[in-house]
Amino acid sequence: MPTSTAAAARAMAYVLAGGRGSRLKELTDRRAKPAVYFGGKARIIDFALSNALNSGIRRIGVATQYKAHSLIRHMQRGWNFFRPERNESFDILPASQRVSETQWYEGTADAVYQNIDIIEDYGVEYMVILAGDHVYKMDYEWMLQQHVDSGADVTIGCLEVPRMEATGFGVMHVNDKDEILAFVEKPAHPPGIPDKPDFALASMGIYVFHTKFLLDALRRDAADPNSSRDFGKDIIPYIVQNGKAVAHRFAKSCVRSDFEHEPYWRDVGTIDAYWQANIDLTAIVPELDIYDKSWPIWTYAEITPPAKFVHDDEDRRGSATSSVVSGDCIISGASLNKSLLFTGVRANSFSKLEGAVILPNVKIGRRAQLKNVVIDHGVVIPEGLVVGEDPDLDAKRFRRTESGICLITQPMIDKLDI
C-alpha cells in the first residue's frame, strides 16, 4: 500500500466536466456527458469523484460548462458533505467569464488557468487533473507516489491497449523506465511498449503535477497566441519536449475486488458503449464490481421505497432475470431479462423488456415489447409499442445504431403516429 504520509492529503483533484459528449446524441441534448446516468443510480462523474474521495483527496474542484444545470444540481445534492473545518472543500467552477467579459473556457487547460487564484488559495502541493466522463475505479495515491518518487514534471495515467486498437487515442512512446519520449495523437502506427511490443500506452486524460509547475505551465501557455489551451494538444507535448514526463500504468493503481480479474476502464461515449457497459452489470460476475464496499461509488442517494414485483398469473407475472432493478421501481405484471432499470420505473402488465437500459421515471405501457434499447429520463412508452423486431421501422422512428441499439427520447415518442 502507499505510505502513511499520503500525498493525496496534500493534493487537489480538479475534474474537467464541461464537455457535451456529442457521440451520445440525444442523451446529451439536456445534460453534459458527465451528468449522464450510469449503473442504476449514479452519474458518470461519480466515478472520478469517488476515486478522489476514496484515495484520500479532500479538496476537489469541478469545472463545468455545457448545459451544466443537472450536473450542478446532482453535485449540490450528492456531494455537499465536505467540511471546511476539516480542511475539505468541494468547488463547482462553472465557466463564468472570470478572465474577461467575453471569454468562456476555451480548452481543458484554460478551464484550470481561469481558476488559478482559487487553486493558489488552498496551497495544495499536488494537482490531479481528471476527466469527468469515464467509468473506472482507481486509487490516485499510487500515481501520486510514483510522481513524487520519479521527480517527474508530469505523470500521465495510461492504459495498456492492443497496439492497433490505440489509433484513436493519444499514445505515449516510452523507454524501459516508462519515461515518455514522444506523445503522438491518434497515430496510424502506434509505438509499442518496450516490455510488451504488441501493446501501446494510451492516455487516460489523467495528469499529476506539482502545483507550482502546473500553474507556471498554464501561465506560459496562456501567453502563447498560437495555443489551443488544451492539455493533450499543448501542455503535455510541450512538457514531453522540454521537461520530464513519465507514464503511470493503470494496472498499478486500478482498484479490483476479488471478483474483478482485469483492469476495468470504459469511455461510455457512444450509444453502443453506454448500452454495453450498463448491460454488462447484469452479468452473474460483471467485469466492474459496483458492490465492492471497500471502494464505494458515492452519489446522490435518493430516499426511495424498495422495488416491487406484482401479479402472478401465467401471462402476467412481475419478474426479472439477470437484471438490475433500482429503488421505487414497480414491475406490475411485466417481465425483464438482462435489463437495467434506474429509479422510479413503472413497467406495466404484459410488457416485455430484454436488453433494456431504462433511465429514471420512465413509464412503460401495457404490452410494450422492447429489446436492446436505451430509454431517456421521464419517457412515457405508449401501450403496445414494439422496438427491436423491425430494424427499418426502428431507424425511422428512433436513433438506431449500426449494431441495433435504439435510443428513445420523449420528443421521438411525441412524433409517433399512434
Automatic annotation (TrEMBL):
GO terms for molecular function: glucose-1-phosphate adenylyltransferase activity. The keyword DNA-binding does not apply. SUPFAM superfamilies: Nucleotide-diphospho-sugar transferases (SSF53448), Trimeric LpxA-like enzymes (SSF51161). Residues 305-408 form the Glucose-1-phosphate adenylyltransferase/Bifunctional protein GlmU-like C-terminal hexapeptide domain. Residues 14-282 form the Nucleotidyl transferase domain. It catalyses: alpha-D-glucose 1-phosphate + ATP + H(+) = ADP-alpha-D-glucose + diphosphate. Involved in the biosynthesis of ADP-glucose, a building block required for the elongation reactions to produce glycogen. Catalyzes the reaction between ATP and alpha-D-glucose 1-phosphate (G1P) to produce pyrophosphate and ADP-Glc. This is Glucose-1-phosphate adenylyltransferase. It comes from Rhizobium binae.
